[in-house]
Structure formats: C-alpha cells, structure tokens
Write a structure and sequence with these properties.
mainly alpha; Four Helix Bundle (Hemerythrin (Met), subunit A); 219 residues; disordered N terminus
Length: 219
C-alpha cells in the first residue's frame, strides 16, 4: 500500500515537472523572437556612435554600459533584499527568517551575479572587436536587451518560477558574445581553423553536459 502511494506521488511529481517544463519551453519560444526583434530594432534605428575608431573609446563605452547593467540589474536586487530585511525579523541575517519574496530576490541576485561574469567580459570583447561607430551599435543593443531580459526574469520569477524563462534570451546573448569573441581570438592565432576550434570544443562540452546531467531512470 505504501509502495502504491509512493508510486502515485512519484507520478504526480513527474506530471508537475512535465507541466513546468512545458511552460518553460512555451515562454522561451515566445521570448526569443521578441528579443531578437527588439535587438535588431535598436541596432538598425540607433544612429552610429561617433569617435569610435579608437579602441580605448570603444572600451570606455563598454565600461559605461556595464555600469548601467550593474546599476539597474544588480544594485536594485541588493536594495530589494536590504529594504525588506529592515522591516522584518530578517534584520538579523543569522535568524534564518526569510519570506518567499526575499528568497526569490536572493536567488535573483545570485543568478544575476553569475550572468554578469559572462556578460561583462563578453561585452568588453565585443567592443574591442567592433571596428567603428556603426558596429558599436551592437554593444548598445546588447546592453539594453540584456537589462530588459534580467528585469523580465526577475518579475517573472515572482509570478512563478516557471515564468523566469522569459529572461532566458539574456543568457543566450552573453553566450553568443563569448563565442564570438573566442572565435575572433582563435582566428588571430590560427586563422579559420583557430576560429572554429573553440566553437567545436564548446559544442562538444555542451553535448556532454546535456547527456551527463540527464536524470537516471527509476528502477
């Protein structure tokens, strides 16, 4: 009888997981084309930046963009947690007291910190390899869209953990920037073969991780 009850609970859990996964996939499928459209709109309608022939000038723009991203996406999260702590028992961090809202905000902060580690060097690399003010529009467009996806992730998380998927394109932006920069580095070292090599190695690593992290089937 206990075995049957456990099996029933396990089946219900599987159904919930599948429902959660379906919701994530649907929201990602909607978010990606919207994100691409917004990025392209900003890129093509934004006038070229002036004085971007100098590498240092382009890196300074990237630095300014990083400051904006940190201000609106990370500092706001810190403030959200801090303000709530001041108004409840969590003012003592060792008390263990947390509201659902605070847990979400703390998770958002951790996730955003991880994403910044990808976004910041990727954006600097992108700015470095841009050649002029016209191509630098990519840096501005990427920054605006990344900030928007982080905010969408945060808001969605508060409505339900599955709704955080609307911020997924932001991670893809960071990943694409890093892949592009690494391919350019490889090209400088070994030409076309050098450009392809990091993409192939990363693709193999990603395929391995997908396979290695697949849940084991229950006996």
């Amino acid at each position: 009888m206990n075995h049957a009850k456990t099996h029933k609970n396990g089946a219900a859990g599987d159904i919930d997981i599948r429902r959660h996964q379906s919701s994530l996939i649907v929201e990602i499928a909607i978010a990606f084309p919207v994100t691409i459209a917004v990025w392209l709109g900003i890129y093509y309608f934004l006038p070229p930046l002036t004085g971007m022939e100098n590498t240092l000038a382009r890196l300074v723009v990237a630095l300014k963009c990083c400051c904006l991203a940190i201000l609106f996406c990370f500092l706001t999260g810190i403030e959200a947690v801090a303000h709530e702590r001041l108004r409840c028992a969590a003012i003592d961090p060792l008390s263990g007291y947390e509201t659902r809202r605070m847990r979400i905000n703390i998770r958002y902060l951790q996730h955003t910190l991880e994403q910044l580690v990808l976004f910041v060097p990727g954006l600097f690399g992108l700015a470095f390899y841009c050649s002029d003010g016209r191509s630098m529009r990519a840096v501005i467009a990427t920054t605006i869209v990344w900030i928007a996806t982080r905010i969408a992730f945060w808001i969605g998380y508060h409505y339900g953990s599955q709704h955080r998927a609307i911020g997924a394109p932001g991670m893809m932006l960071s990943m694409l920037m890093l892949l592009y920069v690494c391919a350019r580095i490889g090209f400088e070292i070994a030409g076309l073969a050098g450009a392809i090599a990091p993409l192939v190695v990363f693709g193999c690593a990603e395929a391995f991780l997908v396979r290695a992290t697949k849940p084991a089937r229950s006996p």
